[in-house]
């Protein structure tokens, strides 16, 4: 049994979905039976699809915790050629902040909450508890690897794994850069709008707020981006006629904060949405 396979089996036993990497730190390509995704997998490795092939397929989606599959004869040729072991952070409910150079590491130490860190050949991996969408180049030398991505396994690291902070989630969100900063207190200076109200009954507005709250409550990733887009949608539909009240906006803020958003992020997202709409 190869060293890489022993590592993979140990990680899988701990609940970490793993996959082999070839030289260059890239996944093995589709197996011959799945060439051009004829097995049903979707192109560009965006989803594993209904593939029943026993060999590693479809990039990050090959990651598995099935120790019997990992050690099966079908996978043996792959492990003999493997150069490293990788894992799917999002599949284990984790997010990796990949810091590629000393400047990025210094930025993290000054900006992000302490968490479990692992030294890499060029920098460090900072690992947080919680999943989010993966984004490359969120700032110089910094990538975020979580859902639908893989990270090379460099070792167990040191320190306790902290909860995924807002500061990391915010890196994946692009909002208008011209937005004015707002205080943390909730203010909604929208009453007295000049446009004619299009709401035939109060039920129309109440239903819109309820749908917005439901959208925020049910989201599982990209929370900050979803909150901003939801605020934008509410304001574009209900924000110009003066019908929105503090009570309506409080319902939105409460839903967002229940998903982990801070009061400051809620206020900023609301202000940014208003600014984008010219309010």
Rg value: 23 Å
Shape: elongated
Q: Provide the succession of SSEs.
A: HEEHHEEHEEEEEEHHHHH
Strand content: 5-15%
Tally of contiguous helical segments: 9
Q: How does the major sheet shape up?
A: 6 strands, mixed
Low-confidence stretches: 41-50, 175-194
Average pLDDT works out at 80
The separation of the N and C termini measures 65 Å
The class by helix and strand makeup works out as: alpha+beta
Total strand segments: 10
Fraction of residues in helix = 25-40%
List keywords for this structure.
279 residues; alpha+beta; 4-stranded antiparallel sheet; 9 helices; 10 strands
Give a written overview of the molecule.
By secondary structure, this protein is an alpha+beta fold. The strands form 2 sheets. Strands 4, 5, 6, 7, 8 and 10 form a 6-stranded mixed beta sheet that branches. The longest helix is centred in the last third of the chain and has 17 residues.
